[in-house]
Design brief:
Length: 104
């Protein structure tokens, strides 16, 4: 989760994953890592908010920039967060980004 100041987050995530049946975890990971929707995202026609952690090794900023470019009318919000789970490690920043998107 790349939040060394919050080791409890990584520990909680690891325990949660360990509690799941291995075959389900592998199925989900396979689905995530083997699915490619790059061509389809340009078909989105609804307001879209892309929230991106400033420091995410798993999904780098270039991915968010690609989506922003491909999704007409999208809004890209790079938030001050590390890791791939900003809704867990920096929920206030995620809530602020969503609120700004909805109410402005």
């Amino acid at each position: 989760m790349k939040n060394p100041d919050k080791p409890d987050l990584a520990d909680h995530f690891a325990r949660t994953i360990q509690e799941l049946p291995t075959d389900r975890v592998l199925t989900v990971l396979h689905s995530i890592l083997q699915t490619d929707y790059r061509e389809e995202v340009s078909r989105l026609t609804i307001p879209t908010l892309i929230i991106q952690s400033q420091d995410d090794v798993f999904v780098p900023i270039q991915v968010a920039e690609f989506l922003h470019k491909k999704i007409n009318g999208s809004q890209l919000e790079a938030i001050h967060a590390s890791g791939n789970f900003p809704h867990i490690s920096a929920p206030e920043a995620v809530i602020a980004a969503i609120s700004k998107f909805i109410y402005h």
